[in-house]
Amino acid sequence: MLGSAGLTQALLLLQCGPPAIMFMAVIAPNSLLILITLGSAFVWAGTLIVLSLFLQGVTVAGARVWRFALALLVSVTAEEALRYGLWRCHRRAVLFLKHAAAQHPDLVFKAGDEALLALAAGFGHAMAHGLVFSLAWLPLASGQGVLYIKSCSTMSWAPAAAFTVLGFFGLHTGSMVVAFDALSRQKLHRAWAVGVVHLAAALLTLTNRAADACSLVATVELVLGTCMMAAAAFVFRTEMVAPVTYAPIAADDDGQ
Description:
Elements (H helix, E strand, L loop, with lengths): L3 H24 L3 H25 L9 H39 L9 H25 L19 H28 L3 H17 L9 H28 L7 H7 L1
Helix pairs in contact: 1-5, 2-3, 2-4, 3-5, 3-6, 4-5, 4-7, 5-6, 5-7
């Protein structure tokens, strides 16, 4: 049997390993990406705290499923609205960086950098969600041995939780890249699709209340996250070939 300390360490290694590798390989070498990641994580963590306080009366223990579904619907809608607001900030930041690079030859804004900025923002979103999930599941690691809960007898809660966190990490990180690119290119159907997938992934977690559905839920969440990261990679490749073209910064300011 694995003790509580070892179980917690294994869980953290499993769910934090791939994100840590991505952070060190992609984000850490660039100080601007680090700042965007930390700022995004702070904004999203604050948003999730406010939403949880606002919705805590709806999701009391023993509440019906529709109450949790309503809370998730409100939460996802609020998050997608915030995503649009962050995209407007992202758009202005890209315009400023491109303008600065044009004015100062020593500054470089390469093709694909816009997607990396969105990736950093998405990574911060995923960090905030991962922190919330981990804190919610931390009490389960306080006991002795490997824990099997009644609604998840086919898999220990530790890998189920870790796979779910990894799935949402890929979903939130990749979806920011896809959504920002869709909004920048005015392909609103793609932006709406991101929101629909986000809502579907959130509602899917409610099936954990059913007996032995946890392994299926964890698998589907992991697949959704992987697919979203693949879509983000496609967006990055497209950005390298055909970057988004914005109006000049002065004209953009006049048009607001």
